[in-house]
Amino acid sequence: MTEESTTPAIVLEKVSKRFGRKVVLDELDLTVAKGESLVVLGKSGTGKSVLLKHLIGLLEPDSGKVLIDGEDLWSLSEEERGKRRRKFGMSFQEGALFDSMTVGENIAFPLQRHTKMSKDEVAARVAECLDLVKLPGAESKKTSELSGGMRRRVGFARAIALTPQILLFDEPTTGLDPITTDVITKLILAMRDKLNPTAVTITHDLKVAFTIADRVALLRDGRIVMDLPPKEFEAVDDPHVKAFVAGDSSFEDPEETTLR
Amino acid sequence: MKRFLEALGGFVLTLLETSGRFFILTGQTIRGFLKPPYEIGLWAKQFVRVGIDSVPVVLTTALFTGGVLALQTYKGFERFHAEGYVGSVVALSMLRELAPVLTGLMVAGRAGSAMAAELGSMRVTEQIDALVSLATDPVKYLFVPRVVAATLVLPMLVILADAVGMMGGYLVAVNLLGANPVQYEINSFQYLAMEDFTSGFIKAGVFGALIALIGCQQGFDTRGGAEGVGRATTSAVVMGSLAVLVADFFLTKVLF
Q1: How far apart are CA A139 and CA B68, in angstroms?
Q2: Record: contact A97-B127, CB cut-off 8 A
Q3: 3-class secondary-structure state, position A196
Q4: A20 CB neighbour count, 10 Å cutoff
């Protein structure tokens, strides 16, 4: 973790969000320093994705503040908020690639819309991004030809095309085999080394979490209940954390686990 | 009783929410349209999809509608020896009413549903979220090209439908019913005013905007996976068709 500036990259202040009667985030507080890699753990359905979508302004909190580099995202106009989003690169669960476009067009999309690069410069940058995710020469492939792991790698490439300061990963390894998971984990580490971004990853894969994290947080009942460096997180003496690490459901509310 | 009132209240709330949402998104579409940059490439692509690809369906519909109209009116008019006016009736009803409305219904079924299905799948596979995360306004990127294309292209389709519908009437009257070709042609144009043509032309533009806005909105607000996409597609066709028919009445009443 580097301390370039004292303003944290991301601050959530008492953020609450409910859908209908279900409270998903409950006065949640969270701070991520510049250049830090935070991993948020939590069971399925605890609102991890909702949390991530609040960071980039895809969802508006019912109450509370989202500060990006000290700026309140929701006090800005929609247009200004759009500009702030260029600081972010987000990788979605299944890649969320535009299926009407080829791999190359997907990665070129943000470059064509937000930069004045020439065609050659865009092509060069696309090739560079594909190189970084270890898919050189895949420009003309259709997105329907890609495997799950490849889709995510293309998603990474698109997310880093504009060299964002903040990277968000939504379940980067869910549903992948162990070897592909390892490839993706190494890729995330390589991207961190190369770009040195602030990174927030949500996952329920502990191995991934402990490999890429500077800090690990546990989301439960709409709040961050534990927030520690990976080594300490693994060793902490808390029933819920232990249950999560050991994969033991006996600490959970039985109604919640069976009736969801 | 309480249940009934709750259900009624729920229905009213949904109705208000949907129409409110429709006006908000319409406003955003207009704003997105007015604000540069104008993405002509995207518009052109939709122009082809909504317009050119609809030509065969629209022409077939118009040809047979013109034909059946000639058949039916001939049967009726024959009873009081007014067969000579079949051409005028076909021309008037095609231009004023049938060409714009049937073109609208066909495009609602073809293009409105496709818009809902496409945007709906984009929503459930997080592609719309991905657009936003790439600092792109999804309404400007997805709605504006479709609405612009449909608004411009529907009147053009109607011109084709007018011509082909009248031709269908001519073919049936002259070849099947033995009408005098010269007399038929004269009668077709004799009682037409410019207003008959422009009224259909303007109506078609409004229909195009409505169909595209409804199709896009239904797709954009899709919830709940593949089933949701199916629902969105169905309601895009149903609501789009109803909007065409209702708007048709009021436009005819108020404007012409």
Answers
A1: 53
A2: yes
A3: coil
A4: 5
Q: How far apart are CA A54 and CA A12, in angstroms?
A: 9
pLDDT band at A251 (very low <50, low <70, confident <90, very high): low
Q: Phi-psi region for residue B11, left (φ > 0), alpha (ψ -120 to 50) or beta?
A: alpha
Chain A contact set for B136 (CB, 8 A): 82, 110, 113
- Average pLDDT on A85-104 reads 89
- Asked if A113's CB is within 8 angstroms of B126's CB, the reply is no
Q: What's the complex ipTM?
A: 0.84
What type of residue sits at position A197?
P
Q: Which residues contact B43 (CB under 8 A, 6 or more apart)?
A: B144, B145, B148, B149
Q: Which residues pair with A10 in a beta bridge?
A: A32, A68
Q: Give B15-27 pLDDT, tens digit per residue.
A: 888 888 888 888 8
Residues facing A41 on adjacent strands: A203, A218
Neighbours of B105 (CB within 10 A): 20
Mutation site, A107, A113, A160, A167, interface B, largest B CB count within 10 A: A113
The residues pairing with A15 across neighbouring beta strands, listed in sequence order, are: A28
A100 DSSP assignment: T
What amino acid is encoded at A181 in this protein? T
Look up residue B213 and give its two tokens. 């806005």
**Phi–psi pair at A118, nearest 5 degrees:** -75, 170
The rounded distance, in Å, linking the Cα atoms of B130 and A58 is 9
pLDDT at B159 over 90: yes
Query: Does B84 or A116 have the greater pLDDT score?
Result: A116
Domains, in order of start, for chain A: 10-259 (3.40.50.300)
